[in-house]
Specification:
Blueprint: E1 2-4, E2 16-21, E3 24-29, E4 31-37, E5 44-48, E6 51-55, H1 86-96, E7 103-108, H2 115-127, E8 134-138, H3 142-156, H4 166-178, E9 184-188, H5 193-202, E10 207-212, E11 223-226, H6 232-243, H7 254-260, H8 265-278, H9 282-291, H10 293-298, H11 310-320, H12 325-334, E12 342-343, H13 344-347, H14 354-365, E13 370-372, E14 375-377, H15 380-386, H16 398-415, H17 425-439, H18 449-466, H19 471-485, H20 490-505, H21 509-527, H22 532-545, H23 547-552, H24 556-566
Parallel strand pairs: 7-10, 7-11, 8-9, 9-10
Antiparallel strand pairs: 1-4, 2-3, 4-5, 5-6, 12-14, 13-14
Helix pairs in contact: 1-2, 3-4, 6-7, 6-8, 7-9, 12-14, 12-16, 16-17, 16-18, 17-18, 17-24, 19-20, 20-21, 21-22
Amino acid sequence: MSDRSPSSDDQRPPESSTAAEGDRSLAVGGDLNGIASTGEGATNVLIQADQASVLPAEAFIRMADLPPPPRLTNVPLHTGLFVGRVQALARLDEALEGPGGAVVQAVHGLGGIGKSTLAAQWAATRGAARHCPIWWITADNAAGIDAGLAKLATALQPALSNVLPLEALKEQALQWLASHEGWLVVLDNVDNPADVQPLLARAPHGRFLITSRRATGWHRLATPIALDVLDQAEAVELLSGILTHGGERNLTGIDELCTELGGLPLAIEQAGAYMTQADLTPGEYAALLADHPGTMYRGRAEGTDPARTVARVWHVTLDRLADDPLPGRILRILAWYAPDDIPRALLGHLFSGPELISAVGRLAAYSMITVRRDTLAVHRLVGAVARTPDPDDPHRRPEDIAEAREQAATALTRALPDRKEFGLWPVWRILLPHVDAVIHEAEPQPGSFLHLLMKEALLLRITLHAVAGKIEDRQRALSESVRDLGEDHPDTLTARDALAYGYEYVGEWDHSIPLHERNLEARLRLLGPDHPDTVRSRRDLTDARRWPQTYASLPRSTQQLLDIYRGIPGSREDG
C-alpha cells in the first residue's frame, strides 16, 4: 500500500470511504492504493483511486498453489464437418502429446487455408484428454494477447474478476503458466512473432499452438508447420458435406467448381453457404463466379462473418504490406500469369535490386505467393481476386489492375527470344502458358505489348505444329527404319536427323550431337563431301557443337529461363 500526503497548497480535508464487516471498519482517506486488512481473519479491502472493493479470502491463494478448474477451455466451437489434414494432425499429435519441456508449434499458411480450424479441431478432439486448461487467445496484436491472458487469470481465479487491472491480471496468468505443466495455449492469427516472444519466454514448461499467416520469423521460437490447400477429393467432400447438410442436393458441377476454388477451405465454405441460401447448384455458382467475379468474391450468406470472405481476408493481408507499394504491384502483375512455374527472371525485366528481392520475400512471408527455387506460384484464387477490379478496394483499383496487365505483357515480350531460333524454343515452351494467360479474353490495341504477344504466340504455334512430334515417336521411327531398311538407308538418315532436331527443339543438345556425327560420317562415305545433304549435316553438327558458346552469349534472363527448363538452379541476381 502506498501513502502520499496532499501538497501543502491543498488544504481541503480528504474524502473518505469506509468498508465494514461486523464490528470492524476501515476509513480510507487521501491518495491511497493497495490492499488493507482489518486484522487476522477479517476483511481484506482493495483500494484503487478512492474505490474500495472487498476481496474474498480465495483471492489471495498463490498462483503457484492454484489448481486448474476441471475441463477448463474456451476453444471456439468446432463442427463435425472436418475433412483431410491427416498429416498435419499427426504432426501435432507427435509434438504436442509427447513428453518434455516447452513445445511450440506454428501452423502457417495463406489466409483462409484453415489454420484456425485445424487448431480448434486438434485442441477439441485430441488435446482435451491430455491438457488442462486449453486456452484460446486471439493474438493478432500484443493488446489481444494481454487481454487473453487477463481472461485466463479470471477463469482460473474468478475472485479476481473486475478487481485487478488488466496488467495485474496478465501477470497473474503468467505466474500460473510459469508454475504449472499440462496446459495448452492456442495463440491464433499471430501477425508478428515478436509479439508472442515475451509470453513464450515466461512460460517454458507448457504447450503452445500458434497459427499465423507468417511463414517466416519462427526459427528461434517455434517449429513451423506449413498448411496447404485441400486436395481435390477432400475439397469435394467438404463442399458436398456443406450442401447436403440439410438433405439431398443437386451437386452437378461440384468437381469443376472445387477446381476453380483451388481447394481453399474458406472459399469452399463461402461458396457452400451462398449456394445453400440461394438454392444454387455448383454449376450455377461457377457461372456466376465467371460472369461476376468481383461480386461473388465479396458475396456471403446472411448470418456469416462479413470478414470471412476471400476478398476481405486477403485485403487485410495486403493492408499489412501497404507501407511499401511494390509488393502489391508485384502481386497484381503475377496474378495475370498462369498460377504455377512463373520464372522469377520475368520480374527482372521490370524491377531490380534489393527492393525487388524484399518485395517478393514479403509476399512469400505472408503466404500470398510460393517461392520454388527460380520460379514463383500464386494460388489460382488469389490471382483471380487480385486481377478483378474493385473501385472500393485500394489494392484492386481498376486503373492499377489494367496497368499490371500491361506490365505483365511487357515483361513477357522482353523475355521472349526470336522464334526463328529453334534452339531457344524451350524458352517459349516455359513462357507460352503465361502468354496465354495474359492475352486470355484480351482485346489489345494494335502496337501494344499485348497485341505483339498475341501475334507472336500465334506464329510460334504454327511453327511448332509444323515440327510437332514427341521424342518417343521419333525414337520409334528411327528404330523401325534401322530394323527394316538398315543403318545407312536415306530414310534412316532422315529419321535420325528428325530425332536430332527433336532433341534440339527441347534444348537437349548433348543428345543431338552423336546423331549428327553418325549422319555426317554416313553421308561423307555415301555421298561425298560436296553433296548438299553432306553440307547440311556438317552445318547441323557445327551448330550443335557451338551451342555452349551460343548459350554464353545469351542475355542473362534467357540463360535463366533455359536453366529452368533443363532443371538447373539458376541465378537469382534479378530477383
